[in-house]
Amino acid sequence: MVKLNSNLESLSENYLFVEVARRKQEYAKKNPFAKIISMGIGDVTLPLSKVVVDEMKRAAETLSFKATFKGYPPYEGYEFLREAISEKYKSLGVKIGTGEIYVSDGSKSDASNILDIFNRHSEVLIIDPVYPVYRDSSIINGNKVRYLRATEENNFLPMPYEGLLGDLIYLCSPNNPTGAVYSKEQLKKWVDFANQNRRIIIFDAAYEAFIEDKNLPHSIYEIEGAKSCAMEVCSFSKSAGFTGVRCAYTVIPKELEVNGHSVGKAWLRRQSVKFNGVSYVTQKAACASLTSEGKKGVLECISYYKTNARILSEAIGKLGLWHIGGENSPYIWFKCPKGMTSWEMFDFLLREANIVCTPGSGFGESGEGFIRLSSFAAHEEALYAAQRLKELKI
Ligand code: MLT
Q1: Residue 108 in contact with ligand 1 by CB distance below 6 A
Q2: Are 34 and 64 within one domain?
């Protein structure tokens, strides 16, 4: 008899952003004249830069000729893109070979699919609150999930301690949703903990391009010892605006082994069974975003979103609400007033200000009582939202 994976029963009915979209649609249907501003899901709004689009066109053109046509891409990605990524690491003072880089369609897929290569009995440690994909994927997979609470008291940057359980450790820095970033000293403690206790860190650096503090690490490999205990996922989504184009990569150093088995080899074996690679056009476009012209485009977009973040932070501050974020990340994280729950505040903001946000509780229990606002919007929308926020009676 066919049965569904019973682990699915342990998930909430909808994925967080599906639920946010459902409530938004329901409200829009009942209030057709409301001008709703979306600051929920962190989806980029600025168009792709010219250098990226020009490269896409050129790449597409080459596919129209017999001599330059291409079929299946290599499972691990084209060498030209892996070389460009390797150069990016070099600029951080980190040596990562092209054979340690695996190109994919998204860091969401990689952060989730990576569980395939580990034993189902491996326990997963998750910082709470955090990007819900780690938790939901672990549950679907049947892994036991352990939580480490991120709170105001630990500046939303919890640290390891003796006796802390969890074989696989998801760290997201800059953190989604709080925007908190681990310092080099703090990451060193995680790396030492993982090496001493034979744990593996899955480091999600999807928001590294937003870091402006020069002392903060963009990659876990800036930390000595990380290559023997950590893999890193990163993406072109939030930097080059590829949420719709789809391109990302995972770094698995040669030194990363489990009981003498190469983790990178296991990942490539998994990918070659379940994944057919990223299109040539997309990889060429991703490569263009790493050229000096491409990097200029990335910086311009990030500075645009950061201006929005400043506008929103100021409005939240004027309301007298505790808040962080928006400096090294695109998200602002603030406390709900008067003991409201996250979903109560979500409904309140939608009803009274027509602003869609993301309820903190969707990122984990410790997110209850908080709200995340995304700065991925047009300046006019950010200004409009700020005005509405300032006028709120709370
Ligand atoms: C978010 O809003 O947290 C992200 O956009 C979701 C994602 O990257 O998948």
Answers
A1: yes
A2: no
